[in-house]
Specification:
This protein is of the alpha+beta class. It has helices at residues 4-16, 127-131, 149-162, and strands spanning 36-40, 43-47, 51-57, 62-69, 79-86, 97-101, 104-110, 118-120, 122-123, 136-139, 142-145. Strands 1-2-3-4-5-8 form a 6-stranded antiparallel sheet, covered by helices on one side. A hairpin with a 4-residue loop joins strand 3 and strand 4. The protein is globular. It starts with a helix and ends in a 7-residue tail after the last helix.
């Protein structure tokens, strides 16, 4: 059985030994505010400390957007999300929205929840590659058009490469 003295020694040793630092990850949330904004044809690119946000306005006050995040300096492939945002909440029983690029259905979908304004697109799509060819993008009843999607994706890729992946202090 451990004596009180032994417990105190063990407790002291445990709390006095320096712990390895927890890895800090850069995040697009919690205040990663846009530092710059750039127009690429109909697209808007916003750059922040940890992320790049690219958006394209559509019909019916909708917006297609992509965000790439560099969480650590050694990360080579971006954390990427593609989203559909609307001004008026999605109604009940919306169901599945298929995604079409240039009139061809791709392996992606949106399943909006009633009462929300934004939905992340699901699927195993290589969004940067696919959107670079998308003169026309359809997500359910929402349409988007771009004359220079390749230029927008090149800018998004360049923006990602410029991110340090370091947590701002």
């Amino acid at each position: 059985m451990l004596s009180t003295f032994s417990v105190i020694i063990l407790w002291t040793l445990y709390f006095s030994v320096p712990k390895p630092p927890e890895p800090e990850m850069c995040s697009a949330e919690d205040g990663d505010h846009a530092l710059s904004e750039k127009q690429i044809e109909a697209w808007t690119l916003q750059t922040a400390k940890c992320s790049c946000f690219l958006s394209l306005k559509g019909i019916e006050q909708s917006e297609f957007s992509m965000v790439v995040v560099k969480a650590t300096p050694d990360q080579t492939v971006p954390l990427l999300s593609a989203m559909l945002s609307v001004v008026q909440e999605f109604p009940e029983n919306t169901g599945r929205y298929p995604v079409f690029i240039n009139d061809r259905e791709i392996k992606a979908e949106a399943i909006p929840l009633a009462g929300t304004l934004t939905v992340e697109l699901n699927g195993e799509a290589d969004w940067i590659k696919l959107i670079s060819t998308a003169k026309k993008l359809e997500i359910g009843p929402y349409d988007f058009a771009s004359a220079q999607p390749e230029a927008a994706m090149q800018e998004l890729t360049a923006c990602y490469k410029s991110l340090s992946g370091k947590v701002p202090h």
